[in-house]
Amino acid sequence: MTKIALIGFGVVGQAFAETIRDKKAMLKEKYGLKAEIVAIAGRSKGSIYDPEGLDLELLLRTFGETGTLESYPRGKKGLTSLETITETGADLIVEVTITNVETGEPALSHVKAALSNGKHVVTSNKGPAALAYKELKALADQHHVQYRIESTVLSGTPAINFASENLAGHKLYGVKGIINGTTNYILTKMEQGEKYEDVLKEAQELGYAEADPTADVEGWDAVAKIMILGNALLGGELKVEEVERKGITCITPEDIMAAKSKGERIKLIAEAYVEEGIVKAKVSPERVHLSDPLAGVSGTLNALTVMTDGLLEVTVIGGGAGGVGTAHGLLSDILAIHRTKS
């Protein structure tokens, strides 16, 4: 049995719990994975622990009625997130707290505590992966557990596992892609004739952009993701200040029409590459020819092209956000750990 402690119970955490509830029987029948969530801790939602496993149908119903995990009628309550990680019987930690790409906290402390206590970690949190991937991977190896981060880049669309596992045996020269759905949505709408300010407001109303859209439109979200890809796939040691960055706020309708007249589209492209043995990265708006697969990626879709020696360029396209997609990315990592343990 895989005993899971879930740290964070926002949109992604709740979607993950629902996914385990709905697919529990299938996971056991098809993959031989008996997955039990035994503990959950949320920043403002309390905590609950039952070593025999939580009744997720009951938990989700009572949480929906009260807004607190501690309305669940059974189990131990009141544990902190760190106590949930270190003092429960979970052998796998799913970390889905809010991302902080400046310090990585509190997720960085959560991940370190879990790995140091011999527990596998699966996470969608970009902060620790962007700031301390090499350190955390070494800590996982030291304690003979796994630190898996598939959901940090393209949500549930395969990216890291796709490049590192499905393309195993290839030499990777670099990666490039559209890895921020908000900016891609804005640029798509601007090409259709809408104004930047109107599209941004629309994206905020639809939930694609935050009230403060800086992280997206100025390229910071893409910077964190390309750091993860460069460090995890290419063996780099990128730091935030080393990534060239330019957002989309400078793009005008005239720029978009000029590109269109040349058979091109403007996309916010993130790229990591090896130059003279050093991994470098950049994020900037670029004119992409319509013959490039990335040019056809519209709306909130994301895409990643991996440059290899065997297949040259391979591109994967899919959704890059949302609770359900992210939950399935987390689940894919849990199944990967299960396969290596079996």
Structure annotation, total helices? 13
Q: Indicate the mean pLDDT.
A: 96
Number of domains: 2
- What class, by secondary structure content? alpha/beta
| Spatial ordering of strands, largest sheet | 4-3-2-1-5-6-7
Helix content: 40-55%
- The CATH superfamily of the largest domain appears as NAD(P)-binding Rossmann-like Domain
Q: Provide the succession of SSEs.
A: EHEEHEHEHEHEHHEHHHHEHEEEEH
Gyration radius, in Å: 21 Å
* pLDDT < 50 runs, ≥5 residues: none
Globally, the shape reads globular
Say what the CATH topology of the largest domain is.
Answer: Rossmann fold
Number of strands: 13
Strand content range: 15-25%
Distance between the termini: 11 Å
**CATH secondary-structure class of the largest domain:** Alpha Beta
Sheet bearing the most strands, described? 7 strands, mixed
**Any guess at the CATH architecture of the largest domain?**
3-Layer(aba) Sandwich
Please describe the structure with a list of short key phrases separated by commas or semicolons:
alpha/beta; 342 residues; Rossmann fold; single chain; globular; 6-stranded mixed sheet; 13 helices
Descriptive report:
By secondary structure, the protein is of the alpha/beta class. The protein folds into two domains: 2-153 and 323-341, NAD(P)-binding Rossmann-like Domain (Rossmann fold); 164-319, Dihydrodipicolinate Reductase, domain 2. It has helices spanning 11-31, 56-66, 81-86, 107-116, 126-142, 151-154, 160-166, 181-191, 196-206, 214-217, 220-234, 253-261, 323-341; strands at residues 2-7, 35-42, 46-49, 76-77, 92-95, 120-123, 147-148, 172-178, 244-245, 264-275, 278-289, 301-308, 313-319. A seven-stranded mixed beta sheet has the order 4-3-2-1-5-6-7, with helices on both faces. A six-stranded mixed beta sheet has the order 9-11-10-8-12-13. β10 (264-275) and β11 form a beta hairpin. The longest helix is centred in the N-terminal third of the chain and has 21 residues, at 11-31.
